[in-house]
Amino acid sequence: MVEGVATQFGALVWGMGDGYNPAMSIRAAIIGPTGYTGFWLIDLLLRHPAAEVSYLASHRDELPNIAEIFPALRGRCELSCRPIDPDVMVKEADVVFTCLPHKAAMAYVPAMLDVDLRVVDLSADYRLTDAELYEEVYQTPHTDRANLEHAVYGLPELYRERIEGADLVANPGCYPTAAALALSPLLQRSLIKPENIVINAASGVTGAGKSPKPHLHYPEVNEAYSAYACGTHRHQPEIEQTLSDQKGSGVSVLFVPHLLPVDRGILETIYVNPQDDDVTEDDLYEAFDDAYGDEAFVRVQSELPNIKHVRDTNFCDLAVRMVETGAGRKVVVFAAEDNMIKGASGQAIQNMNLMFDQGGTAGLL
Ligand SMILES: NC(=O)c1ccc[n+]([C@@H]2O[C@H](COP(=O)([O-])OP(=O)(O)OC[C@H]3O[C@@H](n4cnc5c(N)ncnc54)[C@H](OP(=O)(O)O)[C@@H]3O)[C@@H](O)[C@H]2O)c1
User: Fold this and answer.
1) In terms of pTM, does the model score above 0.90?
2) Is the minimum distance from the CB of 160 to ligand 1 under 6 angstroms?
């Protein structure tokens, strides 16, 4: 880390957050800066009071200036992309964010760790702890089992202490972040049953990344609303892994994602059975308050969440209802987040802050 380097716009624009060290600047490299998560990382780092964008690394033959790719960065960040070269990157960066598709990430991460760069990986390559399960779900061999063994799942509200000492953090998926925050406190306190959990989720179109795909063209998405990958989405095992770990025994879910014709935002509506007849809505809120009372980025609220209220923020908004139905009582949990921020780049910055002892909220409030 460099002492006393000024950051662009940082403290002028956003709040500084708690516990950050103004005498320090974390130098951040990004591999894959030309995609959506890369863009939002650059944007957030430019506003961070103790971090700077020091190296943008691309696999392209013709290396673009990042402001040509994202005109919104003109006058803020006009760095040219450079080759993905760990020996050069380690001289200019303390941490590298890999904003790459799965499979591509694990092709670069070992070389970054070998030169002692710390890594926050936004792909799925280090999220599932069981390599066989990864290979089944992602239909590709896992080529970096050695590092998978010590990767830490980067959901700060659940695994803060492990993240602080980590060299390799697996940034969670967007849908799994909201599901894990919504259900973990209720499972831990045995207020809900660990089976027959249905997660009904909708995401904005940026969730699918920047590369063009026919079903994501404007005429296909506009004024449409459709379910996809019912019970087969790759995030289902990731959600089950985290919830089982939090509960301490097996948890199974049915995950049903939908494509929402907005550019960003996730809303999850989750149907669960209460553990027994005594559980009340107050008990459920008490569990949330216990778990998240000191957390800056989880807002427990009585009104039902709305993706508009979390847009461009690192917040996850939670609410819960105990509903009487003709067939008994049902717990319904609601979670909203911005898939690009708490679901991706904001959470990656939260992880960087913890890894570099900068306080959890620096650059994010
Ligand atoms: N979008 C979300 O809401 C979200 C949320 C959570 C996690 N994630 C995960 O984060 C990762 C990045 O997502 P994204 O939405 O930013 O994707 P994206 O918009 O498609 O961007 C992908 C980036 O990776 C680069 N890239 C592709 N193949 C590469 C290779 N073989 N070697 C080096 N660079 C390569 C691309 O460069 P070119 O442009 O030059 O091809 C681009 O910069 C994915 O694993 C995704 O699943 C995304």
Assistant:
1) yes
2) no
